[in-house]
Fold each of these.
Amino acid sequence: MSNWYQQINKTTGSILAKIQNQPFIKELMQGTLPKDVFQFYINQDALYLAQYKKVLALVGIKCRDENETQFFLDAATGIIHVENALHQHFVNADSFTTIASPTCELYISYLSRIAHEKSIAVSIAAVLPCFTIYKQIGDYILENQTNKDNNPYQEWINTYGGEEFAASVEQAINIANKYAQTAHQEELEMMNQAFLKASQLEWMFWDSAYRKEQWEI
Ligand SMILES: Cc1ncc(CN)c(N)n1
């Protein structure tokens, strides 16, 4: 019998396929993504991660097992080190904005609400696509690209396709599966909804970056 993650990953497989087909991902893989679009993405991602790490810390505090708490606290500080370093590499300080785009605002507000109001099982389900989708996209690009030696975005690709990230993604999946095992039916349904919504928001995040989404008013 398949576990919770295998089932929800299958159910949301069409979202992953749509992300792989987004122009942002295709051009990132080819190395042809316009620099200003990538800058916009990295800027918004820095704003996203600043909040995401707080959500991870909160999830860690809610865990029932101290090793799980440690995992989420380490993941939060890992973001500070690994992803901040990535941003240092790519961010253009002169054009950096502290204003989150509508989609970035929506994603971080959603995660924060879930982590503050819902159970630990549902909270983990909501933060999980941030691990799993980036891993799947990193692997997808690494497997399909033909320009590893001259892609200006290779450092980004290697971060998410790399083994170190894979280990933490696997641990996050295992913890989610563990909480799913003891979740009652209604809670399982909420876990599925949270994973689905966060996956949709991952699609929206890249889409909004490609369009350099602005507040319309
Ligand atoms: C929006 C988003 N989602 C996920 C990740 C990978 N931690 C990220 N950097 N940004």
Amino acid sequence: MITDTPREKELETRDELFLAEVKDKRVAVLLSGGVDSSVVVWEFARLGLHPDCFYIKIGPEEKEEWDCSSEEDLEMATAVARKYGCKLQVIDCHQEYWNEVTRYTMDKVKAGFTPNPDVMCNRLIKFGAFDEKMGHNYDLIATGHYAQTETDENGDKWLVTSPDPVKDQTDFLAQIESWQLRKAIFPIGHHIKNEIREIAEEEHLINAKRKDSQGICFLGQINYNDYIRRYLGEKPGDVIEMETGKRIGTHKGLWFHTIGQRKGLGFGGGPWFVIKKDVEKNILYVSHGYDPQTAYKKDFPLQDFHFLTREVAMQKVTFKIRHTPEYHPATIEKLEDGRWMIHSEEAIHGVAPGQFCVVYDENHHRCYGSGEITV
Ligand SMILES: Nc1ncnc2c1ncn2[C@@H]1O[C@H](COP(=O)(O)OP(=O)(O)OP(=O)(O)O)[C@@H](O)[C@H]1O
């Protein structure tokens, strides 16, 4: 007798839930040409569904060499949509990206903060500008993010982490509006990356062997420093050793550096860590050593905390300040001025103002939301 493995049973139950969620709904799939969103289309097609697919176009300002990877993406997306009998349309969000995400990024870096364009791209573009242009015609917007959702007994929808700790992307979704979360579905979020690759290979998807996209979404091959240099240029200033006040070199612009940074500083006699930026005086402060205490923090405040579903009385939580697999345990306290204070159990390296601190429940299951680290 053939019996299903627990994983197979789990996937069957998941299929039933998925079908119930999408049945009779108008679904738009955001298809990037990458393997994850291609498998999203397969998830629908194998259940006999053929949703409309959309490729969002966000090229650089002028036609130049930056553009080649997006042409390839569009070709792949076209081939995948065709394979599964879905329509594919290109939606141009170029202007919105450069107006909104780029403006946010440049404003933050100019003020000495460490922004996260990927986080804002989800809110402003994939679930924002796209919704205004096309998504409003649909009940649900499906993406290939590694994230899940669950609905509680009150009908509230929560963002839930994915079983693949390395790929989990709930942190990138931690600024989306609650109406955007209600519309979002993540059909591959219960899978680990290897399962997606296996499906893609079995299905002979054109992009099965393609490398994962890296760095800032939509910017393709552009290096982050080039992106910033293009808008803000260079602004050289002194680099000073925090402990001694000694000038040890010159930086090309504070915006090329982030607190906690070690690599790419280019001074001899290292290792050096970026500890502080003085934007007014244009000074970069660094510390020397393999693990300087100045590079760590346990307590730090968050401003403009954004709750994904609804406000929660948070106390014992876990959090992330970077896209890493670890969730740090902490307590969190609401301050009188409306900010929230993180008290981390362990000291955290490279806590930089401007970064989003993403907060989860104690078991890092539900993502509550995120706030911007402030000083
Ligand atoms: N240019 C695009 N057009 C349409 N949807 C996009 C585009 N870029 C990203 N997305 C959507 O956002 C999701 C997450 O994007 P991300 O940049 O993290 O890609 P990824 O993890 O490499 O996934 P994929 O393999 O699908 O590209 C994608 O799975 C896709 O649904």
